[in-house]
Amino acid sequence: MTANATRNGAVPGETLRDWLISDRPRSRRQASVGRAYRAWRGFSSNRLAMLGLVIVVGLVLVAIFANLLSPYSPYIGDLRTTRLLPPSPAHWFGTDDQGRDILSRIIQGSRITLFVVVLVAILAAPIGLAVGTVAGYSGGLIDAALMRITDIFLAFPRLILALAFVAALGPGIENAVLAIAITSWPPYARIARAETLTIRQTDYIAAVQLIGASPWRIVLRHIMPLCVASVIVRVTLDMAGIILTAAGLGFLGLGAQPPMPEWGAMIANGRLYVLDQWWVAAAPGAAIFVVSLAFNLLGDGLRDALDPRAAK
Amino acid sequence: MNAPPHLPSRSPYDPMLVVEDLRVSFPRRGGGRTEAVRGVSFTLGRERLGIVGESGSGKSQTGRAILGLTAPEGRVSARRLMFNGVDLMHCTPRERRLLRGGRIAMVLQDPKYSLNPVMTIGDQIVETLRAHTRMSFSEARTRAMAALESVQIDDPKRVYTLYPHEVSGGMGQRAMIAMMLIANPDLLIADEPTSALDVTVQLQVLAVLDALVVERGMGLIFISHDLRLVSTFCDRILVMYAGQVVEEVSAGRLADAKHPYTRGLLNCVPKLGASVHPLPTLDRLPEWAL
Amino acid sequence: MSTGGRGDVRLLRASNALGRFLVVILLTYLGLLAVTFFIGRVIPIDPVLAIVGDRAPEHVIARVREELGLNKPLWEQFYIYVSKVLQGDFGRSVLTSNPVMQDIRRTFPATLELATLGIIIGAGIGVPLGVWAAVRRGRLVDQIIRIVGLVGYSVPIFWLGLMALVVFYARLGWVGGPGRIDVVYEYTLVPVTGLLLLDTARAGEWEAFANALSHLILPASLLGYFALAYISRMTRSFMLNELAQEYVVAARAKGLSESRIIWRHALRNAMVPLVTVIALSYAGLLEGSVLTETVFSWPGLGLYITNSLQNADMNAVLGGTIIVGSIFIGLNLLSDLLYTLLDPRTRTR
Ligand SMILES: Nc1ncnc2c1ncn2[C@@H]1O[C@H](COP(=O)(O)OP(=O)(O)OP(=O)(O)O)[C@@H](O)[C@H]1O
Ligand SMILES: [Mg+2]
User: Fold this and answer.
1) Closest partner CB to B101 (pick from C245, C249, C253)
2) Is the distance from CB of A240 to CB of A298 less than 8 angstroms?
3) Of B8, C50, C65, C268, which one has the fewest beta carbons inside 10 Å?
4) Are residues B121 and B32 in the same domain?
């Protein structure tokens, strides 16, 4: 692949790869594309991280095409003929006490898992980002107060607090998501604050201040966007924990309610039969394990690729 | 636990240390290797050899390679690396370890980082001794106090119980020297051992090292930035530049040095009465590094 | 400076630091109480309706509201709440109709025993594994230990517990099943500490001891594995950091053996931050007992909290939350104190 003549400042005979890994980028765009390319090369040479990525992409595809992929209905089984059947070619993962195909339920359940993960990220990351950037940019008393609150939340037992929240709000998947989000923002606030403190020192922010931009505008338009990347890495690393917490809430009967095919709740259901019909609990647990392992691998790989210091 | 018995004892006629074509290289990020030391050769008897050169010229890496302390990712090669008739390149790791600290010792460059922060100075000195000789704890303690005293520490009892962060840089440096000398090595490599000392203490510590060379016949490799100090203290001087020895001169004949880099260094040493304007600068010609 | 003077200065500095630290702890504790108060009083639709039911006549509702102090301003309610909690009064459990504090006292030793054995297993194996991985960095063992750790914090622990019960209890019969001890021993035992291993050993009832251990070992190993995953990973990273330090080169220059350099020098330094990791893991196990105890029908605080949750017994839930939260805060304090003890640099700072 040779250099495209329209690319800015391309040198004849330079390959695309040379252009990407050049030590002397000739434009800001080349520098940032090059940086992304190097991070991607670091990431893609990490086989475990790639495995994680493949599984996560697989999860998303399964969730999108759940209806097409499910061989049976996830909600309705035949109580007379298909109750508690062991794994077989007809039912790969067996059937549960209601005669429902477990594979179909797991496939449908991927939607719930994805829903939880995405929603927690959407709720918790902005809270953390807002608290962290405001604290870091304003400094002084506001900073001290906000960080004190963050530290207080960090010192809490997160799982039990989430349990208490759900108990008070009433069981249900939405409340479970809310409870997890409320207890998982503090680390993001810490990270965002640390980033903000370094960004605040830059000439670029000084220039914006000189133009007369309001503090709100600076935080919202100029600081927050720069903090997003590191918060995203941290969120990816936390995904596995979020999935496990949500599954734990489901297992205790506080998350998704029957007949929703939530994986944790499915384990709780399978627990009743576990000594004789182990497969009812085995399959959803294995699904949780594979997905959270994938998120862990992906998160590790992302962090290593974006932060070479941590790679060692 | 002294040196392994099968190692030949040293004959007074051989040089103590023979280094021939020593090379140390490190992997470079993104592939390839950088050579930190590129074919250094010298011999050493019971004398004081100075190594000078600018920062990054490979002085410390030369010393570390002789002890076998190169970082694991580094690669060391040499045509010959002999210490008292022992071929260091073909020793087992265990044999090398027994030589280290007991017969070859090295004072590391920065006392702030080379002392263990969670162990008292005294414990760290005693530890060297007990790694090389069978000796009761109380005897080792007495020896450690004596060693501290010998490097001009006034209150050895107190310093013995202090943690590294509680002593000054100069005191740490002297404690380091005591730690490395306590097992009576035949060869001491001292990497800038006096850089944190004020002039009077510096002279006292140099006198201690000097006495060991003269009285016990210890060999000393003295690494320094300070050309003037090295020229007054050492018998011979190696001048290093970019991983190579560019010149070897005896201290008395430093004025006759031929290599332009050495001459440049010499010009940077201020002389009384001479005009310092314009401030001398060092030339670095790319062909010197070839 | 005389040695006595030095000591005084140290003491003064230490007590200053302690004072500042106690303020932080106090604030955190107040925060915990505020959050539990908020959950208990503000979030539920109406605590009065929860008690009297939604068909009660108007005057009954008003009376109950007054009895509960719910007509007072919020800050006054909070004040009353805090002073009650500080006296150990969490109200009565609807489920057991005992004072919540009494229930907690009864159930806590079971959790303590489980989590303590868990952290002993987790740290006892996790630290050496982490050291080993760091020393053989990039080799096969390092990879294997990394995978073992990754699996440990990717696997839902309650599910692993179920599967382990199926294999080791139902199929192989190697361990005791759910519960703390077989029923036959349950009534012969006089609880002194509430820790069955200690109680049986003190009474010299070795058969009961073995039985209690056979029940304990599986859930404790699971919690231990869970802790090991985190501890070994952190140990590895702290050790890599220490092994790259210059004092390690100096220790080699002294001719010390590799094992002495690793365990006595590098690990001793790595222990300073590791203590915090271990303390936090311990706290995590106490909290994680909520799930493990449910799986193993372990009659501890976790199971108590879960049962109360499922019956919307908020007094019990919040009491349990406050106790676990207090332990968290206490362990934080403890790890900071240990940090100071282990690192001579912080003692004089
Ligand atoms: N672990 C390593 N990896 C890569 N390069 C290294 C490593 N250690 C040393 N080097 C390189 O080796 C070269 C020589 O280093 P050395 O420490 O010997 O210099 P020096 O002459 O002692 O300098 P100074 O006077 O500053 O102590 C330096 O350029 C350094 O960057
Ligand atoms: Mg050096």
Assistant:
1) C253
2) no
3) B8
4) no
